[in-house]
Amino acid sequence: MAPFEIVAHRGAPEGVSGNTIPAFQRALDLGADGIELDVRLTKDRVPVVFHNFYLDEGTTVSGPIFEYTFDELRNVEVLGKGRDSPTPHRIPTLQEVLEAFGGRIGFEIEIKGPEAESSEIVGSVLLGFRRLWETIEVTSYEPMLLANIGQRCPGLATDLLLPLSEDWMGLDVVTYLAIHRAGLAGARGVHLHPTQLSPEVVATIHSSGLEVHAWDVNDEESLSRVAELGIPRFDTDEVQLALEFRTRWRR
After folding, report:
1. Residue-wise burial string across 32-64, b where 16 or more C-beta atoms lie within 10 A, e elsewhere
2. How far is it, in rounded angstroms, from Cα 97 to Cα 81?
3. Distance between CA 4 and CA 165 in Å, rounded?
4. Cα–Cα distance, 66 to 46 (Å, whole number)
């Protein structure tokens, strides 16, 4: 058994944009344990996989995603990156990603919000994929969205994302916020940045019955920290580096 699971943040988007089918396929081909993806709602409330509010970064149209219907987005091209002649790709729906990769890799599905109904809409899709629930965790920075999806999909793992600490915050405040915001969400666990982790933080959160995962684990120092702390699962933009580190860590 691997000492920790590696989740590819927005897939492994080398030469393509993140949150696209090719980026997720590359993460699978590399050997990642899971893919992280972001879900936003279109104007007509279709859950699509896209990170930013605005469509004018790496796409062929401009403006916020919530001003477009799904039909209007269907033919929008998301341009690849890092190549002289980037290959365009489409914005996928959550349904399409689950159909394409279900049973082949794990999922970390972030509900971006802020629409109150986004949990119900995402939950409706996930109810059609109950067979995959053991491979899915739903995340959000918004406790209410997690609480709502927990009610709609009881038994589905939900984890609270904690943002980077403000300059004035000590780790005691980080720990306190993590525990109580996770409580508001009814979450299984919390996801912290490597700079928010210490043996005391992890032990205290564990003592409250919560799991601790990590995000933005993108260099050797962060990889070493999460491994030494026994963090079982983390997100990374550097999938190959993380996989190589895990091979060395096993020895």
Report:
1. bbbbbbbbbbbeeebbbbbbeeebeebbeeeee
2. 21
3. 25
4. 10
10 SS3 class? coil
Cis bond before residue 13 (omega within 30° of 0): no
Domain ranges of the chain: 5-250
Q: Look up residue 42 and give its two tokens.
A: 């279109």
Instruction: Give me the DSSP letters along 93-112.
Output: BHHHHHHHHTTTSEEEEEE-
CATH superfamily, with its number, for domain 5-250: Phosphatidylinositol (PI) phosphodiesterase (3.20.20.190)
Cα–Cα distance measured from residue 204 to residue 95, given in angstroms and rounded to the nearest whole number: 37
* pTM of the shown model: 0.95
Which residues, 6 or more positions from 243, have their beta carbon under 8 angstroms from its beta carbon?
6, 30, 31, 32
How far lies 147's CA from each of 188, 204, 227, in Å? Answer: 11, 22, 30
- Tens of pLDDT, residue by residue over 22-74, are 999 999 999 999 999 999 999 999 999 999 999 977 788 899 999 999 999 99
Give the chain's mean pLDDT: 94
Quick one: tokens of 142? 């918004």
